[in-house]
Design a protein that fits this description.
It is globular and about 65 Å long. It has three helices and four strands. A hairpin with a 4-residue loop joins strand 2 and strand 3. Helices cover 36% and strands 35% of the residues.
Amino acid sequence: MAEQEAQTPEKHLTVAKIYVKDFSFESPQTPNVFNTSEWAPNTNLNLRSSASPISDSLHEVVLTITVEAREKEGDKTIFLVELQQAGLFDIGGYEKEEMGVLIGSFCPGVLYPYAREAIAAVIQKGGFPEFVLQPINFDALYQQSLQKQQAEAASAAETH
């Protein structure tokens, strides 16, 4: 039993680095957009994450967030923000399923507060009212993603 424990690598997870990989802000309607008295745009949020192994235990996780605000009338873009918030995570000793949860849910959850702050700051510096991204349940998103993948796999298996 002691030999088996010695062979099992110790579980570890550390954040090695958090950084902005790519960031853009566009406001094509300025300065005319500031002449309107009513501020009630339609806002769309798109969120996705990806991961790439760098070495045996080092993984880069990238959380990509796109926020677009459009006029209610006319459908013109007021502002568009695209951010790739990234991090290097040293992860080891976990089973494949555990790794999936860590990389698909935990790591994006660590990156999200940094992304929220960066997006809020650039929108405000663009001259617009405070913009607050609401908290996101990455565990639920990860589970939805798994269910979608399983449904697609089952559908593909039925067609063959």
